[in-house]
Specification:
single chain; 3 helices; elongated
Length: 81
Amino acid sequence: MATMNVSLPDPMKDWVESRSDDGRFSNASDYVRHLIRKDQEREAALAAFQSEITLGVESGPARPFDSAAFKARMREPHDAS
């Protein structure tokens, strides 16, 4: 595993250290790795969301929506096979 030195202002350093003091994380490195994983997950979710938005935009103009027909289709029994 690689080592990285990070400079933090004292209040941030105190915050990171408090995360391990309360027992949730075993040390500051565990907490920082947790934050990085969460950031990576957030970035992946945003990329997937943006991809779906792009697909929608590129799918063409919107069509009228018939809510009564939609509700009727939702009430129809589903084929169990």
